[in-house]
Amino acid sequence: MPTIQPRVLKGFRDSLPEMELMRAALVDKLEKVFNLFGFVPIDTPVLEYAEILLGKGGGETDKQVYRFRDHGNRDVAMRFDLTVPFARFMAEHVDQLYLPFRRYHIAKVWRGENTQRGRYREFMQCDFDIVGTDSASADADILLTAAEAMKALGVGDFMLRINHRALFNRFLAHIEAQQVSTEILRTVDKLEKSGTQATIDLLSTLIAPNLAQEVIAFIQKEDSFEKTLDKMLSYCTPGDVEASIARDRLRDIMDCVSAAGYEQNVVLDPSITRGLDYYTGMVMETSLTVMPEIGSVCSGGRYDELANLYTERRLPGVGASVGLDRLIAALEATGTASKTDISTEILIINQENATLRELHALAAKLRSAGYSTEVFPETKKPLTQYTYAEKKRIPLAIFAASPSGPFTLRVLSRRENLDVSDFEGLRGILERELHG
Amino acid sequence: MPTIQPRVLKGFRDSLPEMELMRAALVDKLEKVFNLFGFVPIDTPVLEYAEILLGKGGGETDKQVYRFRDHGNRDVAMRFDLTVPFARFMAEHVDQLYLPFRRYHIAKVWRGENTQRGRYREFMQCDFDIVGTDSASADADILLTAAEAMKALGVGDFMLRINHRALFNRFLAHIEAQQVSTEILRTVDKLEKSGTQATIDLLSTLIAPNLAQEVIAFIQKEDSFEKTLDKMLSYCTPGDVEASIARDRLRDIMDCVSAAGYEQNVVLDPSITRGLDYYTGMVMETSLTVMPEIGSVCSGGRYDELANLYTERRLPGVGASVGLDRLIAALEATGTASKTDISTEILIINQENATLRELHALAAKLRSAGYSTEVFPETKKPLTQYTYAEKKRIPLAIFAASPSGPFTLRVLSRRENLDVSDFEGLRGILERELHG
């Protein structure tokens, strides 16, 4: 008698074959693009010292972290992102590696978050970064990799929205609002969700209402990259050197992006701030034209110091994170995900008139020819075997008493039976039905 | 100032790009074979209710399991294998799926084991199973999938050693040693490690010395499949029905395996028992001719009940587990793993005489042609850039001031520079150097 109720923890879920095949196809395409740009994969442990993951003190994320004492009474935690483990990884291995180091890491992370609003406690992250260089070329590479990934995934039109943190910071310095810069960044970052008026109201609790209006004016996009850039500079103190450097950096980045043919997919958007103190240079978000409401599907930016908690080596870098779950939602919505869930191509029907020996000899022949094939393991009524094939989305079934033929091929979608006398004839029909 | 020492927990390790690329190449080959046989991927949560993973009581494995209280004070644990989560998964989802269900699952598991003898506390498992059928065809499919996987991995000659648990059990019944069958199975399972005399000595503590000798005689292989089978039957009670059924099953399995062309890779070996009570039918191990000392690289067998802790549905099945770490060791030892660690194919040298715009335009052209390409992000001495390329095992470097040429291609391994006037000429040389 069963004694235990089979169930998963709240906020966790199984991945059934259909979802798993879709995710695998998506990850495969991403990896090909990462490889094309020279990124290499790494992996790090799921469990680490809590001190490593959370720092000596520990901040707001702590409450969400799965943290416990292991068998040796060590204070350990499960990783909650891929950035902190990467920082520790670089500090530890920089001498065995080379700089600049381009890595990607696709792996699960865990956060004991509130599961309302459809949040999961276990989810996949996909990060790619270039560390060890502060250059426009690397910034551009992150944008180009993101753009090439979107193209490879076939999610339709997309837009990379970029900005430079220094321009926002120099503007805030000019209006003397630096003390509340973090709060302003966070507020502006939520502009799309909150709406303009609510944002002005919130900003007015931080700075004078006329300055709140000025912030809103600053973050409006103009007609072109250069016009937006000019507008942003005009809101800073005239002659501000840091602002000029940021402007030149953005121009250099756009130059590389244009040269690589992605000018139409990158826009300068002063409202993009990525509300994290972490970023210091270019920041970026990616929106899909077909589903802007799902938010950014690839976000990131440049940071000054990856690993200063763990090493004296300065490791400036730039990187981004792909939102796999959002992309899967987009692929499902646009129907682009449909064909990936076929696994087996051919089911060999198991009937009394053939021995297992003959059916397995035929299966081996079909697999040698590259067809994903399985023998139904028991002799059952054809209808039972068809039902199995339909549930598993197997498109074709074959009746045979010998591996050399004759064969009857059943096209399950059309409920049509085709008679073929020999294996060559069978291959011709298989090609037409499966790849035609 | 850095304040935290970067380090990983004992028994855990980072995976650097070289290892990660090797693992990815191996997993890719395995997945292609699984797909060819109609297996589909699934995934399950890393964290589950401790009750689900350990049962109501909990046995010897408990001590090794990472178990703790989560934020909601739930008694949770990290999975220590992929079999128990699969049993829970099938009990929970059987009505959304179809039977027989062929799944594979490649994922990490955690055990707080003693780290002496090179054991890791975090490692990858790779399981494939067919559940919902008790048939020779499914047993054969597991053997054929294992054989095809070994062939695809290119690990050289291999041997699948199979047996049937019922034959051993009926032999033990005949010599009236059933009460100590578990202990005998465990002892015999370690024969290769312990040696014959030590095994006889150990067996003699369980049964009479003459019976211990009989056990050793029983588990000797004979010249052929049929001779070994006859010998095994002759050690059972004459006319034993269960033993005859097991014999017929082994013959049917061998029939399928021979039909599919793998007769030479499968041997009946009565010493294979897989010392686990779990198995009830065919059992199998896989040894590599080139490295027998690493032990079985793919092991498994048939079981009566996958999920009886969680459901009343009877779910008989057969499956096996691939030893990824052992296979990586074998691939390293045989040198088959060498070529997988090339990532970037071309480094575009960054020199003052070219703008980033031109270098990125060239990179885009090369990527469109399918070459993994990166622009060195900063203008540095060629030697610095060569050193980077060599450390990352990038085979080729290109000097260019324009995306249309002329180019100088440097073959880093030969320290040879080749001048090319246009892009078409460059492509010809790239093909020859990279794929020639």
Give structural notes.
Two copies of one chain form a homodimer. With about 425 residues, chain A is an alpha+beta fold. Among the domains of chain A are: about 160-285, BirA Bifunctional Protein, domain 2 (2-Layer Sandwich), CATH 3.30.930.10; about 345-435, Rossmann fold. Chain A contains 15 helices and 16 strands. In chain A, the strands form three sheets. The first copy, chain A, has an eight-stranded mixed sheet with strand order 1-5-6-11-10-9-7-8. Chain A has a five-stranded mixed sheet with strand order 13-12-14-15-16, with helices on one face. The longest helix of chain A is centred in the N-terminal third of the chain and has 20 residues, at about 15-35. Chain A is elongated and about 90 Å long. The relative contact order of chain A is 0.11. At the A-B interface, helix 1, strand 1, strand 2, helix 3 and strand 5 of A face helix 1, strand 1, strand 2, helix 3 and strand 5 of B.
